[in-house]
Automatic annotation (TrEMBL):
Pfam families: HTH_1, LysR_substrate. Belongs to the LysR transcriptional regulatory family. This is LysR family transcriptional regulator. Keywords: DNA-binding, Transcription, Transcription regulation. It comes from Thiomonas arsenitoxydans (strain DSM 22701 / CIP 110005 / 3As). The keyword Phosphoprotein does not apply. Residues 2-59 form the HTH lysR-type domain.
Length: 291
């Protein structure tokens, strides 16, 4: 039987794409990651990773092991959550404010699992782009795309949401970038970072339509209305969309988990925050932060 710690280090390499990136995510040194990787390959008697000058590339067998390892890690997290919930029954209502894209396309898909894990906690999720006030108890916990500056908050980065350009497979100008038209936000979101990024890429090319929320952008792009800037975790998962090559700089937004310092000792709030942290940690498409 192989050592789980060796497999955990291999997972980090697969997620990061480099030994140094894996070392940073695990808070260990480069040599430890390399040693663990060699040990796993010796245990399994197979080459999992091709070492390149500036990166690591999974071999065909490595890709298969990586997918199985991700499932094992997800199960391990689930066992930990269920065990903790059994040992300390929790009850009550926790309100969570989150950006619409995360509330609709990430959190909603995990509500059934959360209810199974913490049947006594009622999680009330509000999808809103505005920055709620935790001091005024507008929410108990919040996910934010801008790091909060309030001294009364407890903050942790739990992920990074990468963006790319997407269009429908049936978009008429799919292979002719000079004729691309873009799906953007309306004027009230002119200062939003992803709006500036998208319009900078668009340049002199026209905006075909404006929609006030990213779910609208997603639906419009699937319908062939133009090119949209979407989170990669959303665009890559949809078979009707294709990721487009772009000449602009890569763009991403950090995801911050925050609560008021007076609530950090609340068992129900701690349970919700722990669950969210593990949900992002087990979702490499959102580039998890350090635990």
């Amino acid at each position: 039987m192989f050592d789980w710690e060796n497999l955990r280090h291999f997972l980090a390499v697969g997620n990061a794409g480099t030994l140094s990136g894996a070392a940073r995510s695990l808070r260990v040194d480069h040599a430890t990651v390399s040693r663990r990787l060699v040990a796993l390959e010796d245990e399994l008697q197979v080459v999992l990773v091709e070492r390149l000058p500036r990166a690591c590339r999974l071999t065909p067998v490595g890709i298969q092991v990586f997918e199985q390892a991700k499932a094992m890690e997800s199960t391990a997290f689930a066992i930990e959550r269920h065990t903790r919930a059994t040992q300390a029954p929790l009850s009550g209502k926790v309100t969570l404010s989150a950006p619409p894209v995360l509330a609709t396309h990430f959190l909603a898909t995990r509500m059934a699992d959360f209810q199974t894990t913490y049947p006594g906690i009622q999680l009330s999720v509000t999808a809103e782009a505005r920055q709620v006030s935790l001091s005024r108890r507008e929410a108990d916990v919040a996910l934010r795309l801008i790091r909060p500056k309030e001294s009364s908050n407890v903050v942790r980065r739990i992920g990074r949401m990468r963006f790319a350009l997407y269009a429908s497979h049936h978009y008429p100008a799919l292979h002719d970038p000079s004729h691309w038209t873009f799906i953007a936000y309306d004027e009230q979101f002119a200062d939003m970072p992803q709006q500036k990024w998208l319009l900078n890429i668009a340049g002199q090319r026209p905006v075909s339509c404006e929609l006030s929320d990213i779910s609208g952008h997603f639906i419009a792009a699937r319908a062939g209305a133009g090119v949209a800037g979407l989170p990669c975790f959303l665009g890559d998962a949809d078979k009707q969309l294709v990721r487009l090559d772009e000449s602009g700089a890569p763009f991403s937004r950090d995801i911050w988990l925050v609560t008021h310092r007076d609530l950090r000792r609340s068992e129900t709030v701690r349970a919700v925050m722990g669950y969210l942290g593990e949900a992002f940690q087990s979702s490499p498409e959102l580039e998890p932060g350090q635990r």
